[in-house]
């Protein structure tokens, strides 16, 4: 249910002014496309798949492009329209990482000195080094804390920026609704925005920080290993073999074997993580559907059927988790084994040099510490491969949603074919449909070549059999259905208010539910109480401030009455009723329509309805008839004889003369 103004092809939200509590016009506030001061960039051009690729190659190309598409939007955080603190925080994180590696090196030197002093039983040096250790430890811990704060601040701010951008695009121009009407990999957008986007922004920061730290650590301590270890000479029979920098070579070989093993074992991690995330999303969606349709399911006794569906989706979740558990078990075998063996390897390698006196105990311990750091740096990818795989899956899922939004935006920006245009009427006409054709996103016609002009105060009834495209036509008028051709034009600065068949009732107080989509502070208790009285909801007047699950509490008829109460508060110029009284009995429906005529006598009304008795409340009726090439407008009759020219342009009635009714 929306209260909007259509101007220059853009839909704008009408918020009631604080002082507007009568029949004065509410000011018009433009919808900001990207939220805040963000500027919405044009969607990337479509990348066509090479037709010569095999299906497997095409799928891999698609996945690579999805990651590219994610970065196209995500990197904007560091751009001109991004966060002004993005670059300072990023530079600060780099400085902290360098400082942390510096303290690591200092502690490594301290290890050598303390063990040399212990070996020499030099108590004075031991005490001196003990005093030095505490500043080193405090400095290292402080840098670690600062690094965590900076890293998580980047993650939080990046997530905030990108989430705001995606939500703004998702909500703009009814795209959240249009996604349900088009094909594409964008199921469960709410899960993608809430969970996938979180992972997609957390992991890259951790990954870049980890890689940078690993590179600096490896570079620093490889020099330490090369300097301390020197060359190792091995005597085999009568020949000798000298290995320069043997500790460096050993560290690299060890890390290569460990990393190669984990890569081989976990090569299917990405796909399994993707499948697991999709299964989780489908399970959540199934549970959400049960909650949203709880009343209908309970009335029909569909619990067993729903339980079967839940069990099937949950079984898929368990299957995917079992596959993921298998991958984690195999990678744990390598990573745990590596962590146990790594500290022992340098001691064994340095033992011959220590035993022949060419290496001190302090050098052995320094080498062991440096070897562990280098091995950890090289093995960083091994330890984080599962998380990297999870990031791949999440980034692709959020990119799939972005691509679907790209398609809708591209259609909005296209001129001519495939898009219904929105503009302004000329003269006094409140609404005009000019050569309007409504189609599906694949081009299939639903309504074909409709031309109608609606004058101020006219009450137009749109009739036709079920499936003839009436509701689709209404959605096109409201700007929610973009596909087709021709144009929908409104009188400049006139407000449009929609009453759908199933009114939306937001969470919160009854006051908020009645005022929606306006601010609940815009009307006082008396005004809301009067509106509830006029629509027959007097029993709710004492519950205006009550916070309750009104969507579940109110019956279908009460929700439709509530929608009419909103209508009275907003007092729009144009009202579109889409089966807005279908849940009311005939007597209640008549009272509601009589009330509407009395309270909004000057409003222009467009109704979609099946009930013939509603003709009494309209001045004109047009009828849609389903045809092979799309529904056609086959009749236009005056229910109340009006002076002046006909308001129907007759191109679509070439072969049929419209009947008239006094």
From TrEMBL:
List the CDD domains: ABCD_peroxisomal_ALDP (cd03223)
Spell out the molecular function terms from Gene Ontology. Answer: ABC-type transporter activity; ATP binding; ATP hydrolysis activity
Please tell me whether the keyword Membrane is annotated for this protein: yes
Which Gene Ontology cellular-component terms appear in the entry?
Answer: plasma membrane
Gene3D superfamilies listed in its UniProt record: ABC transporter type 1, transmembrane domain, P-loop containing nucleotide triphosphate hydrolases
Membrane topology, from the record: Multi-pass membrane protein
Where does the record say this protein resides? Cell membrane
SMART domains in UniProt: AAA
Q: One Pfam family for this entry, by name?
A: ABC_membrane_2
Q: Where is this region: Disordered?
A: 1-26
Task: Output the superkingdom of the source species.
Answer: Bacteria
Where are the membrane-spanning stretches? 85-107, 127-149, 207-229, 241-266
**Domain ABC transporter: where?**
431-652
Major location category of this protein: membrane
Bias (Basic and acidic residues) ranges:
1-24
Q: Does the keyword Nucleotide-binding apply?
A: yes
> What keyword terms does UniProt attach to this protein?
ATP-binding, Membrane, Nucleotide-binding, Transmembrane, Transmembrane helix, Transport
What family name appears in the similarity comment? Belongs to the ABC transporter superfamily.
This protein is called what?
Answer: Putative ATP-binding cassette transporter
Q: Which organism is it from?
A: Bradyrhizobium erythrophlei
């Amino acid at each position: 249910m929306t209260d909007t103004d259509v101007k220059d092809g853009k839909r704008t939200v009408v918020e009631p002014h604080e002082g507007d509590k009568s029949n004065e016009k509410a000011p018009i506030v433009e919808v900001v496309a990207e939220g805040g001061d963000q500027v919405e960039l044009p969607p990337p051009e479509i990348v066509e798949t090479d037709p010569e690729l095999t299906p497997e190659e095409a799928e891999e190309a698609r996945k690579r492009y999805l990651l590219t598409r994610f970065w196209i939007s995500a990197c904007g955080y560091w751009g001109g329209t991004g966060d002004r603190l993005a670059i300072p925080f990023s530079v600060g994180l780099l400085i902290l990482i360098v400082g942390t590696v510096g303290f690591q090196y200092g502690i490594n030197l301290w290890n050598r000195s303390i063990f040399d002093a212990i070996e020499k039983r030099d108590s004075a040096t031991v005490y001196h080094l003990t005093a030095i250790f505490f500043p080193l430890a405090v400095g290292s811990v402080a840098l670690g804390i600062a690094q965590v704060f900076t890293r998580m601040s980047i993650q939080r701010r990046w997530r905030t920026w990108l989430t705001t951008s995606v939500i703004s695009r998702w909500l703009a121009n009814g795209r959240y609704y249009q996604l349900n009407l088009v094909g594409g990999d964008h199921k469960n957008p709410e899960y993608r925005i809430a969970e996938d986007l979180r992972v997609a922004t957390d992991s890259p920061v951790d990954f870049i920080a980890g890689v940078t730290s690993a590179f600096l650590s490896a570079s620093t301590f490889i020099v330490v290993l090369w300097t301390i270890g020197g060359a190792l000479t091995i005597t085999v029979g009568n020949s000798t073999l000298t290995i320069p920098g043997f500790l460096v070579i050993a560290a690299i070989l060890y890390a290569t074997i460990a990393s190669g093993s984990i890569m081989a074992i976990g090569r299917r991690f990405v796909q399994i993580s993707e499948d697991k995330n999709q299964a989780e999303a489908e399970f959540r969606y199934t549970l959400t559907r049960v909650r949203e349709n709880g009343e209908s399911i309970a009335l029909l006794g569909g619990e067993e059927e729903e339980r079967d569906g839940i069990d099937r989706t949950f079984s898929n979740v368990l299957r995917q988790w079992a596959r993921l558990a298998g991958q984690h078990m195999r990678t744990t075998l390598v990573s745990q084994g590596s962590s146990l063996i790594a500290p022992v390897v340098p001691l064994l390698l340095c033992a011959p040099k220590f035993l022949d006196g060419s290496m001190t105990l302090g050098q052995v311990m320094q080498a062991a510490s440096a070897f562990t750091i280098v091995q950890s740096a090289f093995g960083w990818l091994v330890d984080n491969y599962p998380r990297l795989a999870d990031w791949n899956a999440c980034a692709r899922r959020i990119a799939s949603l972005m691509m679907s939004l790209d398609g809708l935006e591209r259609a909005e920006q296209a001129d001519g074919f495939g898009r219904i245009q929105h503009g302004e009427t000329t003269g006094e006409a409140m609404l005009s449909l000019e050569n309007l054709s409504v189609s599906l996103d694949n081009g299939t016609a639903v309504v074909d070549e409709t031309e109608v002009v609606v004058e101020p105060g006219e009450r137009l009834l749109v009739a036709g059999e079920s499936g003839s495209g009436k509701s689709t036509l209404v959605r096109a008028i409201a700007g929610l259905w973009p596909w087709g051709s021709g144009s929908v034009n409104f009188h400049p600065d006139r407000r449009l208010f929609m009453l759908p068949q199933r009114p939306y009732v937001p969470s919160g107080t009854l006051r908020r539910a009645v005022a929606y989509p306006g601010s609940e502070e815009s009307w006082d208790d008396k005004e809301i109480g009067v509106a509830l009285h006029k629509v027959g909801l007097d029993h709710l007047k004492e519950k205006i401030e009550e916070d309750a699950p009104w969507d579940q509490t109110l019956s279908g008829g009460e929700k439709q009455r509530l929608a009419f109460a909103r209508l009275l508060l907003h007092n729009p110029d144009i009202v579109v009723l889409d089966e807005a009284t279908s849940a009311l009995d005939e007597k209640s429906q008549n009272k509601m329509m009589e009330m509407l005529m009395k309270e909004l006598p000057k409003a222009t009304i467009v109704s979609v309805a099946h009930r013939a008795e509603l003709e009494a409340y309209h001045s004109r009726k047009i009828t849609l008839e389903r045809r092979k090439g799309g529904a056609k407008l086959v009749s236009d009759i005056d229910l109340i004889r009006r002076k002046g020219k006909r308001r129907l342009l007759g191109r679509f009635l070439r072969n049929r003369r419209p009947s008239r009714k006094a």
